[in-house]
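fold-stage: in
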Amino acid sequence: MCLAIPGEVVEIDAGRPDLATVAVSGVRRVINTGLLGDAPPAVGDWVLIHVGFALSKIDEAEAKAVLDFLDGIGQSYQDELAALKASRIE
């Protein structure tokens, strides 16, 4: 099962503004924000991430509700976090 998970933007790559570092449940990864088009995220924004791409911006309350839900489903979320840890965008 593949999930879209919320992550908080902690850094925008100065040389590649379509790349951002996000924090997801203690994991930091670079993701591509190019799908957000004319509404790129800023540091502190929350985005919904799937396979290394930000799909949309979401507010913090929605992000926390989704993270609480995902924590409750157990193994599928743990599998998604493991995939995130193993991923790299260069």
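fold-stage: in (second)
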Amino acid sequence: MDFINNILQFTWLNNLVRLLVENVFGISMETRLGGSVHFFIYDTIKIVILLGIMIFIISYIRSYFSPEKTKKILERFGGISGNIMASLLGIVTPFCSCSSVPLFIGFVEAGIPIGVTFSFLITSPIVNEAAFAILLASFGWKIAVVYVITGVVVGVVGGILIGSLHLEDQVEEYVYQIKMGDSEIEELDRKQRIDFAIQNVKDIIKRVWIYLIIGIGIGAVIHGWAPAEILSKYAGPDNPLAVIVAVVVAIPLYSNALGTIPIAEALIMKGVGIGTALAFMMATTALSLPEMILLRKVIKPKLIAVFVAITGVSIILVGYMFNAIAHLLI
């Protein structure tokens, strides 16, 4: 059991990097520079390993859920069950924001309720295999799993609330007039699914590596030099306004979650509340400015404002929840 825990908790990697920093680079781990260098090398290797594994697994599962198949599945569900299914599908079908407009049109054209559609659009960017892998690497399985669960809950609740407001008239008229038709759903064999997963690992890592390096680099600087007392005082879990400020600041920004998680890890080590850091990350992914600009092509400003308000408040509540139960997760 100790051997298994040593592997899963990357104790072996932590020790190897410590030896590298102290014996090869000749930098004491007791210094700020030593701590920063160790943080950078250790987190980079650990995240890349878990990122590759998780992307492969989820991509293999995702090969069963093309946008066309996702639409057909959602057509069979109504009411709250539709919101739940939409959020669950959002986990394994994390399409990028550039897919939000055609997906929205396809869902509306298929007669899927707006609330169900938004459950999918909220959960899809928040919960994805890359974010889960880095959370797992940075904070452990408890926080990673609770993050996934709360991401789904935010999607379900947000979709239900938006649906209850009956804002169908806030969808641009031309969307209801589009007839996209049904595309043929291509069935892949086992080898094709494995090839798809491998290619997805290459594509995603190629696309996000620069965000990872920058994020881990900033996290390493924070880890070594940021004043813990000041961060703990103004952004710690005891500051009642910290979560709200984090979400409000994040909403207009566009930031890659993969780059913000290592920064969040370093901030949490310095005393920033877990909920505060994760709420900021959620807000940057679910409420990014580019996605709002794309969605404006198919929905009117009032519905966008409702979407931002409901999702933002939900994320704030999740942030407070994480801060409240942090002692159970660490």
